[in-house]
Amino acid sequence: MKPIEIRPGIYWVGVNDQTTDLFEGLWPVRKEGVSYNSYLILDEKKVIIDLIKPIKTEEYLIGLESIIPLKEIDYIILNHLEPDHAGLLMTFSQLAPQAKFLGTAKASELISKFLKVKEENRFQIVKDGEILHLGEKSLQFFSTPFVHWPETMMTYEKSTKILFSCDAFGGFGAIHGRIFNDEIDSLEFYEQEALRYYVNIVANYSQRVISAIDKLTTLPVEIIAPSHGLIWRKSPERIVGLYKKWASYASGPVEKGITLIYGSMYGFTESLTDAVAKGIARTGIKYCLFDGARTHVSYILPSLWTMEGVIIGAPTYEVKLFPPVAAILEMARHKRIFGRKAGYFGSYGWSGGALKDFKGLADELKWKVTHTLEVQGMPDKDDLARAEEWGEQFASSLIKTCS
Question: Final residue of a domain: which of 248, 273, 306?
Answer without folding.
Answer: 248
